[in-house]
Design brief:
With about 250 residues, the protein is α/β, with parallel strands linked by helices. The chain has helices at about 20-30, 45-55, 75-80, 100-105, 105-135, 155-175, 205-220, 230-240, 245-250; strands at about 10-15, 35-40, 60-65, 90, 135-140, 180-185, 225. Strands 3-2-1-4-5-6-7 form a seven-stranded parallel sheet, with helices on both faces. It comes from Streptomyces bluensis.
């Protein structure tokens, strides 16, 4: 169960090598979290992440999980919940893709959509049902400001995040008053391995800043978290820019 400050004792990370997820896990372990499951494709990076978190004092286990294999999600994730209550699930997997290449390769574009949206729908529903059965817990979904309005530069990725965001909001409404808390996190450009080599966007942030916002959101039982917070005002304005003008903006 969570403590008086909303800190989970147990955490399941879907996307166990994500920089944001690991920054969040480190922050929560420093508070109270003691049991962590890192779910992802087996790899040296996943093993290294688990070893690092063990060094911080947590009991860490790895779980072989593939977002692109939804038929396996119920079995794989069900085994985690069978071990005991999970206070928080952090849905953090996703791929950025290569917009220029993906426009020319529909198969590659579909892979982005299947990872970021279809895989998340499957895993999200499996975890939501398990949290509802146990009667408590938080499902934190990493969305993106890219899903707020499609941009020419990354509309394939942005559209997948738009779908994920809408799904998570609807799921939160469906779980209202069940004891399960759903929180959507919308970061802007995050300096991480995923964005390495890309031109930095205005209001760029860090995995540690997103982790701090997630922790605060858990305490407040927030439903939506923007990182940085000023992006909420920026995106509110951009949503209402006429489309002909929006096309010309250097976004």
């Amino acid at each position: 169960m969570k403590d008086a400050f909303g800190t989970p004792q147990s955490l399941l990370v879907l996307g166990g090598t994500s920089d944001i997820a690991l920054a969040t896990a480190r922050r929560l372990i420093a508070r109270r979290t003691r049991t962590v499951w890192l779910a992802g494709r087996p790899s040296p990076d996943l093993d290294d992440a688990a070893a690092h978190l063990r060094g911080l004092g947590a009991d860490v286990r790895t779980v072989a999980f593939d977002a692109l294999a939804p038929a396996s999600h119920e079995t794989v994730l069900g085994k985690v919940f069978a071990e005991g209550d999970v206070d928080m699930v952090l849905l953090a997997f996703g791929v950025l893709g290569d917009q220029a290449n993906d426009e020319r390769d529909p198969v590659a574009a579909v892979r982005v959509a299947q990872t970021n949206y279809t895989g998340a729908v499957s895993a999200g529903l499996v975890c939501a049902r398990a949290l509802q059965v146990q009667g408590h817990g938080s499902l934190v979904v990493l969305s993106s400001v890219a899903g707020e309005r499609a941009r020419r530069a990354n509309f394939i990725y942005g559209s997948s995040k738009a779908g994920l965001d809408a799904f998570a909001q609807g799921l939160g409404d469906a779980l209202h008053r069940t004891g399960v808390h759903v929180m959507v996190v919308r970061p802007g450009f995050v300096r991480s391995r995923m964005t390495a080599g890309l031109p930095e966007a205005p209001l760029a942030t860090t995995p540690e800043a997103v982790a701090s916002a997630i922790e605060l959101g858990l305490r407040r039982r927030s439903e939506t978290v923007w990182v940085p917070g000023t992006l909420r005002l920026v995106m509110s304005a951009l949503r209402h820019v006429p489309r002909p003008l929006f096309r010309r903006l250097p976004l």
